[in-house]
Amino acid sequence: MCEVISLIGQNRLVNILGPPGIGKTSLSRNICNHLKDRRTFHDGIIYVGLRGCESAQMFLTRLSLAIQISNEKYQQDTLTLPNLESMKMNSESSENSPSKEDKEKMRLYISRVLEDKEVLIVLDG
Fold it and tell me: In this predicted model, what pLDDT tens digit does every residue of 30-52 receive, in sequence order?
């Protein structure tokens, strides 16, 4: 746990890898609780469960909703969550991939909401 916390402080991206059932989720939840108790990330921790997430669109939906829910400013902001259900699928790639235009909309949405935030985003699954 100490090693992962140290890595989080040094890097923008940390992966916890291992076979199923080894305790990756338990470890990440304990780390989140530890960091939350110490207010390490001033604007909080966004935890996104990805079990059963089978497409890029589903991933973007879960990430966007988690960010929306965790963002207190969202209620007062004019920023709105893009309508993910109406995203066009890009026929040039996988049928489950959002188009380049929709990916850019999501990137702008996520960056706008988080631009002045100090958060930890944990993707679990």
Answer: 999 999 999 999 888 888 888 88
